[in-house]
Amino acid sequence: MSTDTQPSAQSVDLADLQQQVESLRSDLADLEEQDETKRMTIIATKGSLDMAYPPLILASTAAAFDWDVTVFHTFWGLDILHEEKSKKLKLSAVGNPSMPMPNALAAVPGMDALATRMLARKIDENGTASIQELLDLSLESGVELQACGMTMDLMGYDAEDLYDGVTTHVGAATALQHMADADIQLLV
Amino acid sequence: MSTEFEITDTLDVTGLNCPMPVVKTKQTVDGLAQNAILEVVASDPGSIPDIDGWAQSTAGVELLDQIEGDDVYKHYVRKAE
């Protein structure tokens, strides 16, 4: 490179750099503004009574923090959004190491119903909210409850089977977009 | 201790467990006027750290005081800017 071309090359670069700095500053300001609101995405895949609680408790609490919350319900997690099934979520006695009985006994017909009744009673005595209460609170406070489209078809659930306010027929790509921007992503 | 602020509203969440004290407090505060002071009466001991943490990381609320009694936990939340 000859020395006489260097000063002009430098001055062009400087103007260019100044412009880039301005552009970066403006991007940073935008990012800082967006960053004030935390975002959380939960993937709810389970439909047993015990596993329905964590996503809804975290979602309704996060909404109380004014976070932007999405819960993507897929496979058995769809039952939480199903108007009929959500009222009859069960606890499994089999394969649950916390059950005070061996698996052979837990497998006896009626044991799941018994375990479910026991938990339901404890929930009530403990002042723990019901699944319906947590669903209502979540929807009222702006939590986006999404139903996976593919598993809706797989389970034969129509949009009318699910609670009003639920976003139905959501795809994996849409769920991923929210996850990519989320500060917290949880799989339950 | 005596409170040196004027309570404008009261929310009773006795008997309710996590996450209801926080969630109900937020819902109630949202419906209050600016500078209103809400007294939250809870029976859940976890409401002490929960409401404290919530107030610290949520805009527009200020926790003025928390009082622990016998099985009663009182919280005083001001709706701020």
Strand and helix layout:
The complex is a heterodimer of chains A (188) and B (81).
Chain A: H1 6-35, E1 39-44, H2 49-64, E2 68-73, H3 103-106, H4 111-125, H5 131-140, E3 144-148, H6 149-155, E4 167-170, H7 172-181, E5 184-187
Parallel strand pairs in A: 1-2, 1-5, 2-3, 3-4
Helix pairs in contact in A: 2-5
Chain B: E1 9-13, H1 20-30, E2 37-42, H2 47-57, E3 61-68, E4 73-79
Parallel strand pairs in B: 1-2
Antiparallel strand pairs in B: 2-4, 3-4
Give an overview in words:
The complex is a heterodimer of chains A (188) and B (81). Chain A is α/β, with parallel strands linked by helices. Chain A has seven helices and five strands; from the N terminus they run H-E-H-E-H-H-H-E-H-E-H-E. Helices cover 49% and strands 13% of the residues of chain A. In chain A, helix 2 runs parallel beside helix 5. Chain B is globular, with a radius of gyration of 11 Å. Chain B starts with 8 loop residues before the first strand and ends with a strand. Chains A and B meet through helix 2 of A and helix 1 of B.
Order of helices and strands of chain B: EHEHEE
The number of E-state strands of chain A comes to 5
SSE order of chain A in H/E notation?
Answer: HEHEHHHEHEHE
**Termini Cα gap of chain B:** 27 Å
Helix/strand structural class of chain B: alpha+beta
- What structural class is derived from the secondary structure elements of chain A? alpha/beta
* Proportion of strand residues of chain B: 25-35%
Under CATH at level 1, the class of chain B stands as Alpha Beta
Can you summarize the main beta sheet of chain B?
Answer: 4 strands, mixed
Give the strand line-up of the largest sheet of chain B.
Answer: 1-2-4-3
CATH topology of chain B: Translation Initiation Factor IF3
Please work out how many helical segments of chain A DSSP would assign.
Answer: 7
What is the share of helical residues of chain A?
40-55%
